[in-house]
C-alpha cells in the first residue's frame, strides 16, 4: 500500500510542477488610444509562488496625467485557474497598494495535442477581481 501511495503522490507532484512551469514568467499588455493615451500592465509570476504587478497609465487630459500602481503577493494554480492573494501585513506599503485578493485568471495556451495551424497566444485572462479595471483584461506572455 505504501509504494502505491508514494507513486501516486510523485506523479501528482510532477503534474503540478509541470503546470506551474508553463505559467511562470512575464506577462505584458500595452493599450493605446487614438488620442495617444496609453495603458500598460506588467505581471511577473515567480517560480516560488509570488507575483509582482505594475500598472502604468498616461492619459493626456488626466489629472495627474501619469499614474503608476503596484501590487504583489502570492499565487496558486488549480485546473488552469490562477488565484491571487495579497497579505495585508507583508505585501502592502507606500509603493504596493493594489489588493489582488479574490482575483482569478485563466491560463490559456495552445494544447500540445492541437496540431492545427491556428496561433493561440499564451496569456492570462482575468475573470474576477475586486480591482474593477482588471476584470476581462487579457495579458500576453512575453
From TrEMBL:
Key words of the record: Signal
Signal peptide (residue range): 1-18
Superkingdom of the source species: Bacteria
Name of protein: Lipocalin-like domain-containing protein
Amino acid at each position: 500500500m505504501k509504494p502505491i501511495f508514494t507513486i501516486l503522490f510523485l506523479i501528482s507532484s510532477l503534474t503540478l510542477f509541470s503546470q506551474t512551469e508553463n505559467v511562470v514568467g512575464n506577462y505584458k499588455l500595452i493599450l493605446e488610444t487614438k488620442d495617444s493615451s496609453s495603458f500598460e500592465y506588467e505581471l511577473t509570476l515567480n517560480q516560488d509562488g509570488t507575483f509582482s504587478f505594475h500598472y502604468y497609465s498616461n492619459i493626456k487630459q488626466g489629472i495627474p496625467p501619469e499614474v503608476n500602481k503596484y501590487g504583489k503577493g502570492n499565487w496558486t494554480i488549480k485546473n488552469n485557474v490562477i488565484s491571487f492573494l495579497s497579505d495585508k501585513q507583508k505585501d502592502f506599503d507606500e509603493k504596493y497598494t493594489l489588493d489582488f485578493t479574490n482575483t482569478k485568471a485563466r491560463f490559456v495556451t495552445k494544447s500540445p495535442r492541437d496540431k492545427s495551424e491556428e496561433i493561440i497566444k499564451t496569456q492570462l485572462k482575468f475573470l474576477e477581481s475586486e480591482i474593477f479595471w482588471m476584470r476581462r483584461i487579457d495579458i500576453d506572455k512575453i
